[in-house]
Design a protein that fits this description.
Its EC number is 2.7.13.3. It contains eleven helices and 14 strands. With 473 residues, it is of the alpha+beta class. Helix 5 packs parallel to helix 6, helix 8 packs parallel to helix 9 and helix 9 packs antiparallel against helix 11.
Length: 473
């Protein structure tokens, strides 16, 4: 269909259609006109002009007898009245009879000019003098038109205006220009109206619509671009809504998680203010509780800061050449000190599969943060005298970590949601132990920044199993 073409091609084709249709109808009109002339249905412009010589001969033959009204019928038999009007006047120019009523001769001398013709546009007035010997006895006036006429006078209105016949090609051009322009306008107006309606809906913050126009032309491309823009805007607004919702969740989580340690701190301070401070053992117990909850609040704030960092679109790692073995040895020492508090058995194995123990370009601070989050989680959920194992495999440009414990493990809900922001799982296993629900979310973001991957599952026996790897940057 033509509306599927580009507007340039549509314009060209419409122009061709206008010319072809106008030319075809013009040829048909002129052909029909000449056919009708040929078969005698239409009389040519000079048809009645050709009858005049016979009438002149008849007037000269009858002479002054024509001044008698008894000759009217005979004269009218000679004059084709369907195309010629006539009038018979005497020598004083008085009207005697005829069909031409409005005779107005301004100059009497005109009747003395033999067969004088006077033109009034396409109308011809012919003066035929009635002579006897050499004197003028009267005049026969003929009035006819030099235009095509129908043989049947009642159809003259169809062809009486020869000017329309000449203008017919231009009339057809105007008509077909209007017709094809109207269709061309419809092809343009539909997508434009769709775009206007779509703009109004966007202004009303309504993105639940589709632009129903997919023709492969300029407006089709514009509508598709508008549709894509609408979809991107919808995605952006949803993302903005999610960010706003996350912000509200974050504020709610901060308020909830900070309330508990701060309430405990406040309560212990009030007790200390009202109590006898001579009991050093009791004082030490209160101060330890205050310190523990203060650290809990500090850790929560640290987690919130880390989330803000990794969620920032401009966040980048800071890699540096690091001796991986030394880095791991230091972390093992730190973790052993922590795990000894619960008498947890810490099994560590490191397998370096590199040919050369070269430095690796990694962000050791962020990897330390990842390990801290995962090991601390295992520490929280592993009972006293439990076991945590850490296996590390160092390859060229890649380090893989396996962390297992014999704690509570992951529930089915945990396995689906553990990497979601603020997910805390079973409240009895998280909130009461200061868990903010951000550690694994932060770890996942940092691992992905290292072009790595993290996964969680349960051990075949009991406990949790976390596996992740990072790549050299």
């Amino acid at each position: 269909m033509i509306k599927r073409l580009s507007f340039k091609k549509q314009f060209i084709w419409n122009f061709i259609f206008i010319i072809v249709c106008s030319l075809t109808l013009s040829i048909l009109t002129y052909s029909l006109f000449f056919i009708l002339i040929d078969i005698g249905a239409i009389l040519p412009s000079n048809y009645y002009e050709q009858k005049v010589p016979d009438i002149i001969n008849y007037v000269e033959e009858k002479s002054e007898l024509l001044l008698n009204k008894t000759e009217k019928k005979n004269l009218e038999n000679k004059i084709p009245l369907e195309g010629i009007e006539y009038a018979v006047l005497d020598d004083s120019l008085s009207y005697i009879y005829g069909t031409f009523k409005n005779v107005n001769i301004e100059n009497k001398d005109i009747i003395y000019d033999n067969n004088e013709k006077v033109f009034y546009g396409q109308n011809v007035i012919r003066y035929i003098p009635i002579k006897k010997e050499s004197s003028i006895k009267g005049v026969v006036i003929l009035s006819y038109k030099l235009t095509p006429t129908a043989r049947n006078p009642k159809y003259n209105f169809l062809i009486s205006n020869e000017f329309l016949l000449i203008l017919s090609p231009f009339i057809y051009i105007i008509f077909f220009t209007w017709l094809f322009s109207r269709q061309f306008s419809k092809n343009i107006n539909k997508p434009i109206n769709n775009l206007i309606t779509a703009s109004e809906k966007i202004r009303e913050q309504n993105l639940n619509f589709t632009i129903d126009y997919d023709e492969p032309n300029e407006l089709g491309e514009l509508c598709q671009s508008f549709e894509n823009m609408k979809n991107e805007l919808s995605i952006s607004l949803n993302r903005q809504w999610n960010i706003e919702q996350e912000r509200k969740d974050m504020i709610s989580a901060i308020a909830h998680d900070l309330r508990t340690p701060l309430t405990i701190i406040k309560g212990h301070i009030e007790v200390l203010q009202e109590s006898n401070l001579n009991n050093k053992e009791r004082l030490k117990q209160y101060l330890n509780t205050i310190e523990e909850n203060t650290l809990r609040a500090i850790n929560l704030i640290k987690d919130m800061n880390s989330v803000s960092e990794v969620d920032n679109i401009d966040f980048e790692l800071s890699p540096s050449l690091t001796n991986v073995i030394e880095f791991i040895d230091k972390k093992i020492i730190d973790y052993k000190s922590l795990l000894n508090k619960k008498h947890i058995d810490f099994n560590v194995s490191v397998e370096d599969m590199r040919k050369n123990n070269d430095f690796m370009n990694i962000d050791s601070y962020r990897i330390s943060q990842i390990l801290d989050n995962i090991i601390f989680n295992s520490f929280r959920f592993t009972p006293e005298y439990g076991t945590i194992s850490l296996r590390i495999y160092i390859q060229n440009k890649k380090i893989t970590f396996h962390i297992k414990d014999n704690g509570f493990g992951f529930s089915s809900a945990d396995l689906k949601n553990v990497f979601k922001k603020f997910y805390c799982g079973d409240s009895t296993r998280s909130k009461e132990k200061g868990h903010s629900g951000l550690g694994l979310y932060i770890s996942k973001c940092l691992i992905e920044k290292h072009k790595g991957h993290i996964s969680v599952q349960n051990n075949e026996e009991d406990g949790a199993y976390v596996k992740f790897y990072i790549n050299e940057l």
